[in-house]
Structure formats: C-alpha cells, structure tokens
Amino acid sequence: METLRKRANTWQHSDSADLGPVSSGPGPKTHRRRSASSTSSGAEFSESPRTVQITFGLSDGSACVQVDQLTTLDKFRKKIEEVTQISRRAQRIIVNSSALCSDQDHMLLYDIAPEIFYSDTVDVRVLRRCSDSQARWLDLLEQGDEIARAGLFSGVARDLQERSDYRRMERFRNVLQEHMMNDAHRYAFHRLRVHLLHERCPFGPGVWCSEVCQWLAEDENFLEMALEVNTPAAEVQTPILLYGAREQIQSKPALARQLASNARVDPLVLADVAPQVLQDREFLLISARRCGAILPLAPAEMQQDLELVLTCVAQTGGALRFVLPELKDNKEIVLRAVQTSGLALEHASPKLRDDEEVVLKAVQGSGLALEFASNRLRAQRGIVLMAVSQDGCAIQFAATELRDDQEVVKSAVQVSGQALKHVSSRLQNVQEVVILAAKRHPQALQHASPELRCDRSTVMDAVSASFKAFEFAGHDLRADSQVIRLAARQLLATHGLQAADEELPKVIESNVLLVSKEAGQHLLAALQTGLLTTRAFGLAVVKHDPQLYRRLEEHVKADAEVSLEAVRRLPELFLDMPFQARNQLPIQIAAVAQRPEMISFVLPTDVKRVLAAVEKEKAEKVLQPAALVLESS
C-alpha cells in the first residue's frame, strides 16, 4: 500500500501515459498505463488544473480547491484540510451523494470520482466524521489494529464527556459503521451512550430543565437511542426518560405509537406520563397487544370499541373484569378471554357462565375455572372430567354427587394426590383410591380415613411409593419394624443408596447426616428406637451436624456421651439438654469453659465446683506447653 501511495504521489507529468484501473475486484486497485490520447467519459486528457467548489459542514460555508487528473485522494484531503481546518482522517467526503472511502487515498481522484473533472454541476461536501483528537487513531484502525479500536472508544468517550455534546455521537456512529465488524464493537458503542447518559445526567429534581430536555428537543432520535441501551440502570431510568419526553410524546402521536410497540416501554407508564395519548385509537390498539390492562384507562367511548376490547382480552384474559357490563354478555368477547385465561370466567355474565361451550373452553385452560361455572354445569359429568384432567383439585368445586363418583375421583387423584382431601368420606375409605392418591403425592395419606391409615397393606403401599408417607401412618404402624425398615430403604433409595436388611443400620449410620435432614420427625424417632442403637446414632448425628441434636429423641439427648459431644461442638446446646444431662459435672464444665456466660444456667449448688474445675483446666493448658519444652530440652 505504501508503495502504491508513493507511486501515485510522485507521478511525473513528463510521462506520456496516465493510469487506469486493471481490475474492479475487491482490495486496493492497481493501475496500468494508458494512452494519452485515450478519453474517459468523453473528456480529453488535460494537464490544466480544475477549480472545484466544496461545501464543508451541513451549511457552514464553502471554499474552492484546485485539482488535476494526477491528484490523488490523499492530496485532495490535504488541500481540503488547508481550507477547512478538518484533519484528513476526520474528513468524510461526499461527491454527488457517494462517499469516498478512506482506503482509496492512494488512488487518483480522476479514477474514483471522474465527475469532478467532466461535470459542470458537481456537489462536493466535506463533513466531520469524528473529532480531531481522534483522527490519529483512524490510521491504525483502518489497518485492523485492535489496540487502536480500544483507544478510539476510550478517547471518544473522554472527548464526549468533556464537551457534553451528545449530538456528536451520531458522527461517531458514522465512523463505527465503516469499521465495526462484530457485536463486541457495537456493544462498546452502546456502552458509550449509557456512560454519557448516566455521567452527564444524574437523574434528580430539576434535571429535565437542563441538558436532557435540550437533547430531547433538538434530536428526535435521542429518546429512541436511549431506549436501545439494554442495561439494568437504563431499565430503571426508562420511566424517567419518558417523563422528560412527555411534551414530544403528547404532541407527536406517531412517536407515542412507536414507543407503545417498544419492548422496553410499559404502555401503562406511557399513558400515565402523557394521558393525551389515550385519545388515539391506534395507540390504544398497539398498547392492547402488549398489555390488556390498558382498557380501563381508555375513554368511555373507546371502551365500547369491539376491536379494542377483543384485543385486550386476547392479550390478558383477566382484562375481562374491565369490560363494560353490557359487553360481558358478548359470547365472542368472553370466549376470547377464557381461551387466554380460563379463570377469566369469573368475570363473565351469569348467562355465559351457564353456557356449555364457554365453560368447557375455560376448564380446558384451567381446571379451577370450574369454581365459576353455574351449579348446573358443575354437576355435568363431562365438564367435571375435563376440569379434573387439568387440575385434580378442581374436584372440590364439583357437585356433591360427582365427588362421590369413583371414576371421577380416580381421575382427579391420578392428576393430583391432594385431591383426596376434597372427595367424599366414603371414597377416602376405599383402598384403591387412597393408594392411587398416595402414589401421586406422599402427603395424601393424611386425608385417608383413620381405618386405612392403620391398615398395614395400605400403609406399606404408600410408603413403597414415598418414605414421606410414613409420617401419616397410624401410631402402631409407626412402631412396626418392617414398616420402619421399608421407609428407611425408600429414603436411601431416593438418594441412590441401596441396602439389604442386615446392612441397613450400618448404611444409615454412615449416611446419618442425610438421614437426619431428610427423615420426618416420626421416622427419625422410629429409627432411634426401633432400628439403631441409641448412642451410636446420637454420636453420629452430633459429629456431622451438632444443630441436629435438637431433633433427637429425649432419651437420646439424655445420654451422657452424646450430650458431652454435643456441648463440646456447640456450647449453646447446653440450654436444650434434658435436666438430667445438664446436672452432670463434665457437661457443665465443657459448656462454661467455652462460654463463661453459661454459668448462669448451672445449678447454684454446682457453681463453685464448676468454676474451680474450669480454672484448673485453664491452668493445666498453660503449664502443658512449658512442660513439653522442658522435656525436649
């Protein structure tokens, strides 16, 4: 490239030939000699200079520059710099609406813009595409230097902060459009926008009387650009931006419609900022597609608009509550609402809540919508079956006779075991129904009849499905060793641990922390009394997690060895120990040695002994290192 630049800059007029393009393919163009008698677009080759009038800025002024057919674009830029004071790399040259790229600087102006030489009416404009302080980065930038990219970004950010000029962002964007080739660079540009917006505009009282209001008034694109930035801070400040732009929004319906379709803008906030926009039907329709709750804010005459109402309830079924009473009897509107949200049936007219088609659509979307159907339809078997197939707990809203229908109830408990709570007492005493419910939800056993909760086969089936069902078994079965072992195996199997009956105590003790945390209170107590030795289990629990000492059974807590281990690991447990354990001197000494304030909870008759023992223990700890030193010497 440097060779071509030097060649173009040092071309001698004494040559009998000029340059022409060899190829029009991608990359820098090279040139070949051509005859001096050849013409280009009918123009004779001429050595005499041509005066070109250029306009710099949008309307800042104009000047004249002399060029000839051997002038390169780089030389042309130098001449422009002399008359406009815009550095070469900061120039954006436009000839008859076509921009000359900076990578063509080494080429002849005649080849890339021949209209300058043969056309009498040529429009040459020079715009600034960046600040002069950034021009030096463009050389490196155009060579693909990544460090230069970072320098350009930081330099422009600093320059914009110093000058407080947001409009120059547009010029900077023009530069980046030529050079940004990936999303990372686009993100960097957005970061500059946010940084400037936040640094220069600390949102507070009266801020809209200063720079932001001016930017909003001068640049119609400012609000759109600010909303493009997707950061948590910008998200929070969106309503503030809308408030600052309220005059524009109120005076420009097209802008209000555009904002209503913006994902970053809440139509309800927009309506609060500029209430006048609610008079625009098109704005309401656009907003309704995103937020059905816009309906009650619409003028009274617009709330009768069928298209608007249908759009609102299609977006948010619950918007049916805002529909005028006379329209709640419109079947088309109610059907559209319940298709979106079945629970919208609550706001339909009594007539349509007794309509089979409407209610069926509602329960297909949400089984619990059965609550709002008429009494006649809540007793209709087909509708209830559809409702419980969506949500088993919908059985609670069915007619009394259907809650005693075994087929309907079985369909409900297969979907949700907790539906057993709402069925008739007769079916709560049917083993098949209870087992189906317990397999679906372990806590369903608590809703079974007392007879079945004490029935061995029913409880065994429920516990086989989940160890959590053990908590709701009858008192006698919770003491049954076979039921206890089954629940313990199910608990371990839930976490991928398998154990035979003879290995079960050992596996539980090796996973005591898991068992202690997962088992319910009844299962944990049963394991301590009916399966494991008291001391082994208690010691294993407090060694893994002393906090679990509080969950142990009273007779396990009272064990001297278990209590001593617990208080050594966590002195505060001294307050949770049974009375007989707190009266033991070693346990009292261990607690007070670590927490002197525990002396307040020692029996008055033992205070002197405990304090003396603690002092003695401290003295021994002090003397022990000295004795070791003497022995080593």
From TrEMBL:
Matching Pfam families: DUF4116 (PF13475)
Region of interest called Disordered, as start-end residue ranges on this chain: 1-48
Compositionally skewed regions (Low complexity) per UniProt: 36-48
InterPro entries membership: DUF4116, Ubiquitin-like_domsf
Record-annotated DUF4116 domain positions: 280-328, 330-378, 381-428, 432-478
SUPFAM superfamilies reported for this sequence: Ubiquitin-like (SSF54236)
Signal peptide start-end: none
Membrane-spanning ranges: none
This protein's name: DUF4116 domain-containing protein
